[in-house]
């Protein structure tokens, strides 16, 4: 897999292992890094009037000296600008010695329209805010529309968290071996431009040794082994039965959106569980989706015994309060069911929106229930506000990245957490996590989250493991929204996922 995301510490470990295994030493890796960037600059900007290379004191700057030397050798007009003191004898010092160009202080750098800037100030070793001089060059570059090529990361962006300490706005970021979380987490992602991952000679076998648990959410993560295969003899209930709880008579649309999405995702049967006072309005709007009255805990118990549904959605439009808490805790009393023949978990619960907010005053009652040994798999789908209500202390942390927060929450809740946003993070209680990157702004529309909850439930119902179902659901939902484009409303989404599903299945020969 090439979708692992390496933290700066993991990347340093990969470098260390690669150097120990040979044949390249640190200086050799730096040459390869510089070659990749120089080749990219030559290919993309053959008509650049001048290339300004900004070098910091560490190895990011070292890469910059290699780029400057190679571009000058290729006949490009190169000017070198530096700040900070190099460590004598470091790879960066060797790279600067090998580069014979004059070095100017960065405070005098004024790029002009038609030039290109190579930003080799700070990468993995960023440890403080970037200087006023660096910020000034960044500002002039933006004002003059001078493209910035950032090495490893736009200087000022943390590779670990995506947080920024001043920044460059890159047109292209060239990173090495694998992407880093900071390339995908906001706000860093916004300033990376196009991200190119260059091979500098660190083999996959070295990355494998690191046992990475953070990934970019791409189909590689879940399509081949885990995506539901519709068996030829599939009976509708074998393809899973999803139940979605509806709100009262004036708030039923959200549940129907979830229900429709679950059905489109391939669940064989879907039922809306409705309060008595909303039966009529739900009945007026449902056709293939079934409807059943569920006002009380007894109604739910009866339904569970009779129909053995395989996934629930509780929360969209449901209403905040005691009823939501009681229903959620009742579902959590059911034991998980494992189908040993098919090797799949038979059911799970997606808790969204009001289903989460209802526990804001006493989240521990929810977490105690979810930690019971036989409790069914749980997926929470909070946006930022809901996350803060359920995990206030984690949400407040200034130090932790969104990735770390989602992981901490997943452990505490013993649930898969889908921490939504432009950079949705999916985290499992066992520490596995993925960052989604195929979203689009049009997904931020009312009802979009209800559809996502339904897609995930549809996948859970078909036996997909909860973390994989959540990852696949987020990706499919985002892909459908991205392809639909401007003008999309949530009602469009359940149908828009269909071509995405077709393509996923067609692209996997062993899934046909
Ligand atoms: N390892 C390898 O084999 C390979 C690594 N490669 C490359 O190395 C890069 C990582 O190199 P690195 O670890 O030297 O860190 P780097 O980002 O250059 O910064 C550290 C220096 O900057 C300083 N500093 C930090 N922030 C600052 C600020 N805001 N303002 C001012 N100063 C600041 C910091 O100071 P200190 O924290 O020590 O006070 C220290 O002196 C990586 O991104 C990739 O490009 C490739 O060549 C492939 C092979
Ligand atoms: K940089």
From TrEMBL:
Co-factor binding details: Binds 1 potassium ion per subunit.
Domain of life: Bacteria
Binding, AMP: 420-424, 449
Nucleus among keywords: no
GO MF, one annotated term: ATP binding
Domain YjeF C-terminal: 218-504
Domain YjeF N-terminal: 11-208
Entry cofactors: Mg(2+); K(+)
SUPFAM superfamilies xref list: Ribokinase-like, YjeF N-terminal domain-like
Record EC number: 4.2.1.136, 5.1.99.6
Residues binding (6S)-NADPHX, per UniProt: 59-63, 123-129, 152, 254, 317, 383, 450
Catalysed conversion reaction: (6R)-NADHX = (6S)-NADHX; (6S)-NADPHX + ADP = AMP + phosphate + NADPH + H(+); (6S)-NADHX + ADP = AMP + phosphate + NADH + H(+); (6R)-NADPHX = (6S)-NADPHX
Keyword set, alphabetical order: ATP-binding, Isomerase, Lyase, Metal-binding, Multifunctional enzyme, NAD, NADP, Nucleotide-binding, Potassium
Keyword Isomerase among UniProt keywords: yes
Gene3D superfamilies listed in its UniProt record: 3.40.1190.20, YjeF N-terminal domain (3.40.50.10260)
Assembly and oligomerization: Homotetramer.
Stated role: Catalyzes the epimerization of the S- and R-forms of NAD(P)HX, a damaged form of NAD(P)H that is a result of enzymatic or heat-dependent hydration. This is a prerequisite for the S-specific NAD(P)H-hydrate dehydratase to allow the repair of both epimers of NAD(P)HX. Bifunctional enzyme that catalyzes the epimerization of the S- and R-forms of NAD(P)HX and the dehydration of the S-form of NAD(P)HX at the expense of ADP, which is converted to AMP. This allows the repair of both epimers of NAD(P)HX, a damaged form of NAD(P)H that is a result of enzymatic or heat-dependent hydration.
Family (UniProt): In the C-terminal section; belongs to the NnrD/CARKD family.
The protein's name in its UniProt record: Bifunctional NAD(P)H-hydrate repair enzyme
Natural source organism: Mesorhizobium hawassense
